[in-house]
Amino acid sequence: MTDIEKKLQTTSYPGRGILLGRSADAGKAVIAYFIMGRSANSRNRIFVEDGEGIRTQAFDPAKMEDPSLIIYAPVRVLGSTTIVTNGDQTDTIFDGMEKGLTFEQSLRCRTFEPDGPNFTPRISGIVDVKDGAMSYSISILKSACGDPESVLRYTFDYENPKKGEGRFISTYQGDGNPLPSFEGEPFRTAFDESFTADIDTFTSRIWNALDNDNKVSLFTRFIDCSTGACESRIVNKNV
After folding, report:
1. Which domain holds residue 109?
2. Which of 35, 129, 164, 180 sits at 20 to 30 Å (Cα–Cα) from 20?
């Protein structure tokens, strides 16, 4: 079981990360998504509300160099399903599932990002809360050891997840050149009573664990498993 705070504290550059799970009291679905940046262009961003979801936008539009790959809607909601990703595949999943495709089928037309030599993985997650039940899934689309001709696709499904547990996936394993892509199954993490007691505590602990130089923005959401009611927070380094 991974201590998510220690994991983040000891990884200077995980890139972008998705954390999904169930609160210690079993009553809430837990979502966290953060972005980090090393370049001035990547750091020149904030999260803003966009309907039931969020989108990224330039903090200082005059300093925006290239909007591709960094301006997108990380979170959208389709009925009882919340979609969270690190790129414009959010829209791909939304459109596919709206047409009746599964999460996995919707992503068949996508691959990793075209940013060689890193070939950043596309990480995505969905959380479904309906009639008191919850489940979630996580996907990663990545190159085979940096080979742009080979695509690896992994989907992990968590049906009726255990209370007090979550799963974490990030684009990178740490800093480097090129950046090393995430490997293996999403890390199993523990949510104790204090960690998920309220969304403000959860948000501050995740935010404070991220590297201060590289962190850019954080989004968190708690969804009540009984009512579907949502509570969300946004933290931006640029204010």
Report:
1. 4-236
2. 180
| Residue 210, C-beta contacts closer than 8 angstroms, at least 6 positions apart | 8, 34, 36, 218
Antiparallel, parallel or unpaired: β 81-85 and 165-170: unpaired
Ranking 44-53, 61-70, 110-119 by mean pLDDT, the lowest is 61-70
What lies within 8 Å, CB to CB, of 172 at 6+ separation is: 13, 14, 15, 120, 179, 180, 181, 182
Inter-residue contact 216 to 59 (CB < 8 Å): no
List the structure tokens of 152.
């690896």
The residue behind tokens 């803003």 is: 48
Which of left, alpha, beta for 72 (phi over 0: left; psi -120 to 50: alpha)? beta
Long-range contacts from 100-103, C-beta under 8 angstroms, 24+ separation: 103/137, 103/139, 103/155
Q: Around Cβ 63, how many Cβ atoms within 10 Å?
A: 11
21-55 pLDDT tens trace: 999 999 999 999 999 999 999 999 999 999 999 99
- pLDDT tens readout for residues 147-166: 999 999 999 999 999 999 99
Q: What is the CATH number of the domain that holds 114?
A: 3.60.20.20
